[in-house]
Design brief:
The chain is α+β, with helices and mostly antiparallel strands. Helix content is 21%, strand content 29%. Bound molecules: zinc ion (ZN).
Length: 273
C-alpha cells in the first residue's frame, strides 16, 4: 500500500467504533477530530492495484486493464455463488482463487438500513459490519469455502436484501430488530445440504458510531468533483465521513487517491483571523 494514498479506515469495536486513518506515515485518531475542521485535497492522481499511476479508475477501484485481468476483480468477487475453486476450476488465476476462496467464511445477518444478508471471510467478521455501518449483526453460518456462503446468501435473498442502502444507513439509527428470531426463521430456507453449517451460537453484536449529527438531506461528495474537501467533521459511520452542510464522503471509494489529509481545531482557526 502506498503511504500517500487514501485507504479505508481501520476500525476497532469499542463502546463506539474507534476509527484510525493511516496516511503519510501518520496514524490519525479520527474520533478526536469530530467537531473539528478537516481537509482532504487530491492531486488528481490515483494508484491502482497494478501500482501504476492513473488519472481515473475504470470500475470498483481498478484501472481498465486490472478490472478485466486480475483475479481480485473477477466475476465471483461480485457474485460469490460463481466461485469454482473448490471444484479445481480456474476463473482467472486458480492459485490465487484457491487461497482466497478455500477459506472459512461467515454468512451473517446485519441491520444497517434494514436487514441484509451478507458474507465475509472468517478473519473479517465484525470489521465487515463496522465498514458497512451496521448497528446490529448476528452470525448465521460458518462454511469451509466462499462458494457455500454464496449459495446460502442466494437462498436467503428472496427474503432479505443483500445490499446496504447507504443513504438510509447515513440518516440515522435503524429500528432495532430481533435478529435471533429472524435467524431462526431464515435458517429454515437454507438448502438442506448446507444446514449442517448453521451456527448454534446466537450472540448479537451491537455497534454504535461516533456521530454528533446525521445529515438531513444527503449530499454525497467525491474528490473527482471536489478535489479540495474542507469542513467540520460531524461524525463517522461505516466508511463515511459526515461533514457539515449535509455532506457525506465515502473514503473507501477513494482508495488509491493520492491525497493530503489535515485537520485543525475550530478554536485555533479562530485565532488565525
Ligand atoms: Zn491497474
Amino acid at each position: 500500500m502506498n503511504r500517500d494514498t487514501l485507504k479505508k479506515m481501520d476500525t476497532e469495536l469499542k463502546e463506539v467504533v474507534h476509527y484510525t486513518l493511516d496516511i503519510h506515515g501518520t496514524t490519525h485518531n479520527m474520533n478526536d477530530y469530530i467537531g473539528k475542521q478537516i481537509k482532504i485535497s487530491w492531486k488528481g492522481k490515483i494508484i491502482c492495484h497494478c501500482g501504476k499511476e492513473k488519472k481515473k479508475v475504470f470500475r470498483s477501484g481498478f484501472c481498465y486493464n486490472c478490472y478485466w485481468t486480475l483475479p481480485e476483480a473477477s466475476q465471483s468477487i461480485f457474485k460469490p455463488e460463481l466461485c469454482t475453486a473448490h471444484l479445481g476450476e480456474e476463473e482467472r488465476d486458480l492459485e490465487w482463487e484457491r487461497k482466497f476462496q478455500l477459506a472459512p467464511h461467515y454468512v451473517y445477518l446485519a441491520n444497517s438500513s434494514g436487514i441484509k444478508v451478507g458474507i465475509t471471510r472468517k478473519s473479517q467478521g465484525v470489521v465487515r459490519w463496522m465498514d458497512q455501518g451496521a448497528s446490529q449483526a448476528i452470525l448465521l453460518a460458518e462454511v469451509p469455502n466462499r462458494r457455500y456462503s454464496g449459495d446460502i446468501e442466494v437462498s436467503l435473498k428472496r427474503f432479505v436484501d443483500d445490499v446496504t442502502n447507504w443513504r438510509k444507513m447515513l440518516t440515522g439509527e435503524p429500528q432495532s430488530v430481533d435478529l435471533v428470531k429472524l435467524k431462526e426463521e431464515l435458517s429454515e430456507h437454507v438448502p438442506e445440504e448446507l444446514q449442517q453449517y448453521i451456527l448454534p451460537n446466537n450472540t448479537v453484536t451491537e455497534i454504535s458510531y461516533p456521530v454528533t449529527k446525521y445529515p438531513t438531506k444527503i449530499k454525497s461528495v467525491t474528490l473527482d468533483k471536489n478535489p479540495i474537501l474542507e469542513g467540520e467533521l460531524l461524525g463517522i459511520k461505516g466508511q463515511y465521513l459526515l461533514l457539515d452542510e449535509d455532506r457525506v464522503f465515502n473514503i473507501r471509494s477513494h482508495e488509491g487517491y493520492i491525497a493530503d489529509f489535515s485537520y485543525q481545531s475550530i478554536e485555533k482557526q479562530g485565532l488565525l483571523f
